[in-house]
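for the writeup, i need someone to sanity check this before i put it in the appendix. the sequnce is what the collaborator sent (i think, or maybe the updated version? ugh). structure was predicted straight from it, no edits. if anything looks off just tell me and ill rerun, i have time this weekend
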Amino acid sequence: MTGSCSLSACPLNGYVSETSGWLRSSAIQQVTETPSQKEGEVRFSTMSLVLIIDDSPQIRRLLRVMLESGGHLVREAEDGLVGWHMMQDERPCLVILDLMMLGLSGLDVLGALRADVALATVSVIVLTADGQAESKQQALANGASGFLEKPFSPAVLTRMIDALIRP
Protein backbone atom coordinates (compact mmCIF):
# COMPACT_ATOMS: atom_id res chain seq x y z
CA MET A 1 0.00 0.00 0.00
CA THR A 2 2.95 2.35 -0.11
CA GLY A 3 2.85 5.17 -2.62
CA SER A 4 5.31 5.67 -5.42
CA CYS A 5 4.90 9.45 -5.54
CA SER A 6 6.00 11.95 -2.92
CA LEU A 7 2.70 12.27 -1.07
CA SER A 8 -0.50 10.35 -1.78
CA ALA A 9 -3.82 9.82 -0.06
CA CYS A 10 -3.87 6.93 2.40
CA PRO A 11 -6.79 4.55 2.65
CA LEU A 12 -6.59 5.07 6.41
CA ASN A 13 -8.17 8.39 7.40
CA GLY A 14 -5.69 10.92 8.73
CA TYR A 15 -2.53 9.46 7.13
CA VAL A 16 -0.50 10.13 4.01
CA SER A 17 2.17 8.06 2.28
CA GLU A 18 5.56 9.74 2.24
CA THR A 19 7.42 7.64 -0.36
CA SER A 20 7.56 4.28 1.47
CA GLY A 21 6.31 5.35 4.91
CA TRP A 22 2.99 6.40 6.40
CA LEU A 23 2.69 9.57 8.46
CA ARG A 24 -0.24 11.22 10.26
CA SER A 25 -1.76 13.88 8.00
CA SER A 26 -1.29 16.54 10.70
CA ALA A 27 2.39 16.45 9.77
CA ILE A 28 1.81 16.96 6.02
CA GLN A 29 2.59 20.67 6.21
CA GLN A 30 6.03 20.05 7.71
CA VAL A 31 6.89 17.26 5.25
CA THR A 32 5.88 19.21 2.17
CA GLU A 33 7.61 22.37 3.35
CA THR A 34 10.92 20.66 4.14
CA PRO A 35 13.63 22.43 2.16
CA SER A 36 15.18 20.25 -0.51
CA GLN A 37 18.12 18.28 0.78
CA LYS A 38 20.85 16.35 -0.96
CA GLU A 39 20.35 12.59 -1.25
CA GLY A 40 21.60 10.87 1.89
CA GLU A 41 21.86 14.12 3.87
CA VAL A 42 20.49 13.83 7.40
CA ARG A 43 18.97 17.01 8.82
CA PHE A 44 16.70 17.59 11.82
CA SER A 45 14.85 20.66 12.98
CA THR A 46 15.46 20.42 16.73
CA MET A 47 17.29 18.45 19.42
CA SER A 48 15.13 15.97 21.32
CA LEU A 49 15.33 12.76 23.32
CA VAL A 50 14.64 9.81 21.03
CA LEU A 51 14.20 6.24 22.28
CA ILE A 52 14.98 3.40 19.87
CA ILE A 53 13.29 0.09 20.72
CA ASP A 54 14.57 -2.62 18.39
CA ASP A 55 16.03 -6.07 18.96
CA SER A 56 18.60 -5.61 16.18
CA PRO A 57 21.88 -4.11 17.45
CA GLN A 58 22.80 -3.13 13.89
CA ILE A 59 19.59 -1.13 13.39
CA ARG A 60 19.98 0.52 16.80
CA ARG A 61 23.57 1.49 15.98
CA LEU A 62 22.61 2.88 12.55
CA LEU A 63 19.75 4.92 14.03
CA ARG A 64 21.94 6.14 16.91
CA VAL A 65 24.62 7.46 14.55
CA MET A 66 22.00 9.06 12.30
CA LEU A 67 20.13 10.73 15.18
CA GLU A 68 23.22 11.84 17.13
CA SER A 69 24.69 13.40 13.97
CA GLY A 70 21.52 15.52 13.93
CA GLY A 71 22.12 16.62 17.53
CA HIS A 72 19.54 14.39 19.22
CA LEU A 73 19.96 12.62 22.52
CA VAL A 74 19.46 8.90 21.98
CA ARG A 75 18.58 6.01 24.28
CA GLU A 76 18.33 2.39 23.18
CA ALA A 77 16.33 -0.62 24.35
CA GLU A 78 16.81 -4.13 23.01
CA ASP A 79 13.25 -5.29 23.70
CA GLY A 80 9.75 -4.03 24.42
CA LEU A 81 9.85 -4.49 28.19
CA VAL A 82 13.13 -2.60 28.64
CA GLY A 83 11.83 0.07 26.27
CA TRP A 84 8.58 0.43 28.21
CA HIS A 85 10.48 1.01 31.47
CA MET A 86 12.81 3.50 29.77
CA MET A 87 9.82 5.42 28.39
CA GLN A 88 8.35 5.74 31.88
CA ASP A 89 11.67 6.90 33.35
CA GLU A 90 12.95 9.18 30.59
CA ARG A 91 9.82 10.56 28.84
CA PRO A 92 11.21 10.72 25.27
CA CYS A 93 9.85 13.10 22.67
CA LEU A 94 9.90 10.36 20.04
CA VAL A 95 10.05 6.56 20.01
CA ILE A 96 11.26 4.55 17.04
CA LEU A 97 9.68 1.13 17.56
CA ASP A 98 10.10 -2.28 15.94
CA LEU A 99 6.99 -4.49 15.84
CA MET A 100 8.56 -7.94 15.85
CA MET A 101 10.37 -8.52 19.15
CA LEU A 102 10.35 -11.32 21.69
CA GLY A 103 8.41 -10.71 24.90
CA LEU A 104 6.47 -7.47 24.56
CA SER A 105 5.84 -6.88 20.87
CA GLY A 106 5.86 -3.42 19.37
CA LEU A 107 2.06 -3.45 19.24
CA ASP A 108 1.97 -4.33 22.97
CA VAL A 109 4.31 -1.43 23.75
CA LEU A 110 2.28 0.93 21.56
CA GLY A 111 -0.97 -0.09 23.30
CA ALA A 112 0.54 0.43 26.76
CA LEU A 113 1.98 3.80 25.70
CA ARG A 114 -1.35 5.08 24.39
CA ALA A 115 -3.15 3.86 27.55
CA ASP A 116 -0.74 5.75 29.84
CA VAL A 117 -1.97 9.32 30.37
CA ALA A 118 1.56 10.63 30.98
CA LEU A 119 2.93 9.10 27.76
CA ALA A 120 -0.08 9.15 25.43
CA THR A 121 1.18 12.13 23.43
CA VAL A 122 4.64 10.71 22.68
CA SER A 123 5.18 10.38 18.92
CA VAL A 124 5.95 6.86 17.70
CA ILE A 125 7.41 5.83 14.35
CA VAL A 126 7.06 2.13 13.74
CA LEU A 127 10.14 0.92 11.84
CA THR A 128 9.76 -2.75 11.00
CA ALA A 129 10.48 -5.53 8.53
CA ASP A 130 6.83 -6.58 8.86
CA GLY A 131 5.39 -4.87 5.81
CA GLN A 132 2.06 -6.70 5.80
CA ALA A 133 -0.89 -4.39 5.24
CA GLU A 134 -2.62 -5.76 8.36
CA SER A 135 0.36 -4.93 10.59
CA LYS A 136 0.57 -1.43 9.14
CA GLN A 137 -3.15 -0.86 9.71
CA GLN A 138 -2.95 -2.21 13.28
CA ALA A 139 0.01 0.01 14.14
CA LEU A 140 -1.62 3.14 12.74
CA ALA A 141 -5.01 2.30 14.26
CA ASN A 142 -3.33 1.80 17.66
CA GLY A 143 -1.80 5.27 17.58
CA ALA A 144 1.49 5.07 15.70
CA SER A 145 2.41 8.50 14.39
CA GLY A 146 4.19 6.99 11.39
CA PHE A 147 5.08 3.68 9.78
CA LEU A 148 8.18 2.80 7.77
CA GLU A 149 9.31 -0.55 6.41
CA LYS A 150 12.85 -1.95 6.64
CA PRO A 151 14.98 -1.55 4.66
CA PHE A 152 14.32 2.16 4.90
CA SER A 153 15.58 5.40 3.43
CA PRO A 154 17.37 7.58 6.01
CA ALA A 155 16.13 10.65 4.12
CA VAL A 156 12.48 9.53 4.45
CA LEU A 157 12.95 8.74 8.15
CA THR A 158 14.58 12.13 8.68
CA ARG A 159 11.61 13.92 7.09
CA MET A 160 9.21 11.91 9.24
CA ILE A 161 11.16 12.79 12.40
CA ASP A 162 11.26 16.48 11.46
CA ALA A 163 7.51 16.47 10.88
CA LEU A 164 6.83 14.89 14.29
CA ILE A 165 9.30 16.77 16.47
CA ARG A 166 8.25 20.36 16.54
CA PRO A 167 10.50 23.11 17.91
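The two ends are 31 Å apart (CA to CA). The CA atoms of residues 65 and 74 lie 9 Å apart.
thx in advance!!
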